[in-house]
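Quick one, tokens below:
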């Protein structure tokens, strides 16, 4: 039985109680969103229902509603047609409060394991506000029916003979390092005892986690349709694929092989007084291992995807794995700075913690941010889309102003650093686009015009003296001279530009751009500072 007066005595609206004035009518689409939100929040709160009252203002003033029974029946029809799973009100009661009609709609809690969607979108509440249901909350509801930990499933027909002896030995060594006090005892255990103690097997039975981490390559079929695969791809500065390699189980060994494939070269800072150290590795080794091992630990293996690592010669690494990001946002992780309450593969995560592959304190992401901050590099980028998580790590400075701000303000909070990081990436993108535009339309760019006016004569003389002899025909030389000068204009605007961007902006092939760059370097009109990955161009002579 509905006790409307008890509901009206509530101090305020809550996640499971909503007041709406609705004197004469109410928008059906809004009603559907509230139906979804209140039903989902009731589920998460452990309640069996939620309430939506019409004819009551937010301050609980009863104003009454003139919504008719016909309109209520229409609401019920729309709710049934556009909710998933198909739902309806438990009850809709009409009550007279102070001589004014109040309608009380009783909304059922979302079924166990099934969040309620309205027109294919999940809604939720934060206090009195309506919004999208947090991905972590969606996962919590979906995991209610039977918590399905893919990694803990026992593999029928598999035995210890399907595991790699080398992988077991490596795992045992890492487990002993994690538990140094018991190291001598651990090294004396049989393989079966070790696998049980490390929580890779259950009473000698082989699990999905054991096949994934320690299985022989030919044992991968046991976990099908899941894949135990990591693909490493190398791309040049223009985004063209140069090399690739696929790695399978045992993943504990494959992860080490992928780590060794990544060319972690020395990055040289542009010196500015004593603000910056002279040299650092592009990527802190911890960054690479943490990013890769987290892909392994949090991959949604039920989706049948593989982990992809892309090494870009223009100074960034990307890691991509299947599955939604359960915490919802990186900001939530940074602010809470604590272990997550829910993991996708808890059995696998536990095993990887035992083998010293990932942190056990839940501080991995925050540490990634701290390492990049101390190097004055851009913060890691996380992108969540299409049931995938993509992490980008930068191995170079994008904006010297940002780097100086970090170097001169060590006490900035992480939120302040994150805001600066967003600004620098936006500015970098705008500068890059502006450079492309200025070369594509040089007469519209004041800086390009000034460059042309002040450097044209010096360029023509120098280029002719040092390069003319390489050409038999005057027309070919003139074409190269014009092309090289246009290229110089572009480099003058953006010293960090790649040859692919030059080719696109100048409508030239990459081979032609490479040839022109060689002409200019040979003519001592252009100089490369630093390595191909992370360096920059300098215009020589009177061009700067």
């Amino acid at each position: 039985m509905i006790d409307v007066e008890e509901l009206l005595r509530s101090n305020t609206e809550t996640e499971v109680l909503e007041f709406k004035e609705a004197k004469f009518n109410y928008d059906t689409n809004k009603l559907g969103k509230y139906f979804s939100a209140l039903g989902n929040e009731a589920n998460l709160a452990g309640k069996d229902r939620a309430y939506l009252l019409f004819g009551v203002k937010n301050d609980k003033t009863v104003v009454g509603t003139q919504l008719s029974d016909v309109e209520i029946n229409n609401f019920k029809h729309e709710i049934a047609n556009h909710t998933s799973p198909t739902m309806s009100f438990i009850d809709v009661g009409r009550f007279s409060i102070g001589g004014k009609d109040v309608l009380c709609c009783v909304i059922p809690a979302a079924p166990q394991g099934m969040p309620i969607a309205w027109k294919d979108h999940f809604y939720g509440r934060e206090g009195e506000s309506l919004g999208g249901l947090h991905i972590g909350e969606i996962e919590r509801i979906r995991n209610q029916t039977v918590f399905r930990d893919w990694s803990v499933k026992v593999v029928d027909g598999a035995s210890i003979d399907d595991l790699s002896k080398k992988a077991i030995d490596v795992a045992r060594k890492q487990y002993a390092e994690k538990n140094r006090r018991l190291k001598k005892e651990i090294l004396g255990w049989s393989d079966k005892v070790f696998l049980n103690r490390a929580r890779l097997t259950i009473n000698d039975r082989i699990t999905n986690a054991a096949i994934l981490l320690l299985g022989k390559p030919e044992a991968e079929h046991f976990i099908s349709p899941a894949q135990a695969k990591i693909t490493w791809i190398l791309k040049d500065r223009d985004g063209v694929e140069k090399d690739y390699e696929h790695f399978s189980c045992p993943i504990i060994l494959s992860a080490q092989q992928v780590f060794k494939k990544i060319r972690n070269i020395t990055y040289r800072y542009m010196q500015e007084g004593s603000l910056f150290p002279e040299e650092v590795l592009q990527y802190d080794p911890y960054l690479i291992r943490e990013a890769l091992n987290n892909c392994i630990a949090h991959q949604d293996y039920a989706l049948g995807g593989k982990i992809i690592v892309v090494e870009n010669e223009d100074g960034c690494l990307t890691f991509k794995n299947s599955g939604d990001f359960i915490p919802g946002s990186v900001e939530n992780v940074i602010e809470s700075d604590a272990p997550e309450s829910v993991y996708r593969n808890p059995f696998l995560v536990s095993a990887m913690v035992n083998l010293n592959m990932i942190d056990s304190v839940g501080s991995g992401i925050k540490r990634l941010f701290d390492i990049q901050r101390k190097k004055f590099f851009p913060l890691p980028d996380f992108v969540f889309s299409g049931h995938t998580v993509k992490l980008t790590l930068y191995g170079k400075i994008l904006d010297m102003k940002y780097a100086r701000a970090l170097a001169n303000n060590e006490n900035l909070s992480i939120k302040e650093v994150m805001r600066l990081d967003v600004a620098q990436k936006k500015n970098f993108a705008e500068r890059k686009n502006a450079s492309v535009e200025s070369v594509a339309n040089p007469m519209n760019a004041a800086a390009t015009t000034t460059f042309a006016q002040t450097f044209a004569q010096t360029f023509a003389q120098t280029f002719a003296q040092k390069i003319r002899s390489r050409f038999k025909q005057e027309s070919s030389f003139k074409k190269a001279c014009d092309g090289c000068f246009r290229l110089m204009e572009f480099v003058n605007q953006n010293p960090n530009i790649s040859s692919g961007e030059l080719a696109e902006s100048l409508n030239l092939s990459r081979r032609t751009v490479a040839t022109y760059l060689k002409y200019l370097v040979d003519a001592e009109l252009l100089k490369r500072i630093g390595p191909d990955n992370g360096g920059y161009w300098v215009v020589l002579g009177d061009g700067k």
